[in-house]
Amino acid sequence: MSELSELYQQVILDHNKKPRNFRKLESANHFAEGYNPLCGDHLTVYLDLEEGAVKEIAFEGSGCAISKAAASMMTQAVKGKSREQAEELFTEFHSMVTGELDEETQENSLGNLKIFAGVREFPVRVKCATLPWHTLQAALNNEERASTE
Ligand code: ZN
Predict the structure, then answer these.
(1) Do residues 47 and 71 touch, judged by C-beta distance below 8 A?
(2) Distance (Å) from CA 15 to ligand 1 centroid
(3) pLDDT at 1
(4) Ligand 1 centroid, distance to 16 Cα (angstroms)
(5) pLDDT tens, 44-102?
């Protein structure tokens, strides 16, 4: 972890300790369970989708600091967004962590999600960071399960 910026570490640790929107969402009309067998991350994403927009989103589960922080920040990033905007963010996030998008020079709406750019140096961690997003995608598509495999 010494390669990663101090800011990155602080943000990850903060979200790991106090994950945002970490609860079961009783009003959810979509949900999916995600599993990353490489690391053991296991989480459920709950969505209340109203008129094509994410009215509420929450998650629960257990996993490493990166998967938990990624899920926490994802819920903040997609809340209030349209389904299309949420899917676009996933595409950008995925491209960034796999090194296809240079978040500094190419246009994107990643905002503070850029903090995860550092995981591209650690291929095993890419799956931890993208698991919440794959799970969100599965929930949007009414698939009950997502796996990084
Ligand atoms: Zn993990």
Answers:
(1) no
(2) 14
(3) 42
(4) 12
(5) 999 999 999 999 999 999 999 999 999 999 999 999 999 999 999 999 999 999 999 99
Question: From the CA of 31, how far away is ligand 1's center (Å)?
Answer: 20
Residue 148 forms part of a structural domain:
no
pLDDT given for residue 4 in this prediction:
54
For residue 64, report the distance from its CA to the centre of ligand 1, in Å. 4
* Count of structural domains within the chain: 1
Find the 122 Cα to ligand 1 centroid distance in Å. Answer: 11
- Give the Å distance between the CA of 111 and the centre of ligand 1: 22
C-alpha separations of 101 from 73, 96, 97 in Å: 19, 5, 8
> Alpha-carbon distance 39 to 137, whole Å?
20
The CATH number given to whatever domain includes residue 68 is 3.90.1010.10
Q: What is the dihedral of CA 115, 41, 91, 85, to 10 degrees?
A: -90
- Please give the DSSP secondary-structure letter assigned to residue 148: -
- pTM for the complete prediction? 0.93
